[in-house]
Every structure is written in structure tokens, then in C-alpha cells.
């Protein structure tokens, strides 16, 4: 028993070390993700660039066309990889939703609006190919965390991005933004000033593109988020409602910027009700 206890403590210490190390905590959580109940179909190209690829998580045993959830991760538009988000794919594929995790081009290779343009191209691919993976092209939801939430919400806020790839706003049944910067000006860091063509470029913020009705949005955030202030979600929801759109804001007490996405991973799902809130939103729309 002492040896077993020591082994368990050592394993826990190793996992804790991974979570606290320089590697992505989301990537480290892949170690905890169940691998049964879904199939991963990886590496589909939605554009010519090596970064324009996505993975599809297909629930096993589908009885009919299922809702589809397209996800864009965060990373300040300068880092991230779809392979780190196994937990997200499993979280929703295990509940009968065809889940797609997409890469997109990053800074400094590209600047705004390339992130939103890639989101549109990924959505166009999903709309065209959803049926091949058990999904329903008439029930596509777009989501993202942090920079990825910006991508998802901008895609739904400015019709020109999806129209440029032959699409329509109604391809999106709804949008789920997690801790996203929708009204974050002025930028003060040189990287973002360069990335978005100035400290006060109004065109770069989704909130400034709401001039009519948009797809329903669920905007979630944590009260302790000091990276992207919760006010971004409040102001975005108010603008949407003023234009006749459906918008809901949920704030999770005591949750920070990373904690909100971690709460979708096994072992952390009790920290928020985010998974159930997202499933409810998808079902209701």
C-alpha cells in the first residue's frame, strides 16, 4: 500500500507539473480524455495554406443527422493547434454532436481580417461536408474561446466574410463565444496594434459590425477574467439586443480566462455549467 500510494502521488505530481509547465494546459489535459464513443477524422484541408485544416469528431452510433459544432481556439491569434483540443472534441461528440476543431492562420504570417476570413472558409467547408460525417448542414453552430471567440463572433457580426465564400449568415444557427474580445479597443500592446492595423481601428471589433439582426448568440465569461474583461460580453449582448437579435450572457463566478475553457475537460467539468449551457443553447436553437 505505501508503494501504491507513492506511485499515485508521483503520477499526480507529474500531471500537475505538466499543467503548470510551459506546455499548453489544454494539451496536457489530453492525457485525461476518454478515447471511446467517437471517431476522429483528422486533417481535412479547407484552404491551401498548411494552417487551414480541421479535424472532425464523429459520435459513434448516430441514428440520424446530428447538430454540428465548429470551434476556434484561443491563443492571442499567434499560437495554438487543433491537436491540443481533444477535450473539446470529446466533450460534445460524446453527447451526440458532430464537432469540428479548426486551425487558422496566425500572426505574424497574417493580420486581421485574415482570422475572420479563415473562419468563413472553415464554415463553408463544414456546410459543404457536414453530411459526409453524420452532421446536419442546417444545424451548424460556431463557437470559440478568447481569440477564437472573436473569430466566431466576427463571422456572425459582419456578413461580408461568409458572403465572400458563397455563404449566408443563416448557415449559422447560433454562435457561442467564450471570453471573447468583442469591444476591446484601444489596444495598448504593440503586437495587437500591428495585428489589427492600429490602436483604435473600429473596423477590427465585432461590436461595430452589428447593424441589423444577427444569429442568436450565447456569450459566456468568468467574473475573474482579467485577460478579456467580462464587459466585452455585456456590451456585445446589449448591441445585439438593440438590433433585434437574441443574445444571452452567462458569467461564472470565480472563473478566469483559462478556467472557462478548462471547465469543458474531464476532471474540471464541475467548475462551471458551461458544457450543459452550451448543449441547452444548441438544443433550443
Explain briefly what this protein structure is.
This protein is α/β, with parallel strands linked by helices.
Spatial shape: globular
Topology as H/E string?
Answer: HHEEEHEHEHHEHEHEHH
For the largest beta sheet, what order do the strands appear in spatially? 1-2-4-3-5-6-7-8
How many separate structural domains? 1
CATH superfamily: Alpha/Beta hydrolase fold, catalytic domain
Known CATH architecture? 3-Layer(aba) Sandwich
Determine the number of helices (DSSP H or I, runs of at least 4 residues): 10
What is the residue-averaged pLDDT?
A: 92
Radius of gyration, taken over Cα atoms and rounded to an integer in Å:
19 Å
Spatial separation of the terminal alpha carbons: 52 Å
CATH class category: Alpha Beta
Please state the structural category: alpha/beta
Uncertain residue ranges: 1-23
Helix content: 25-40%
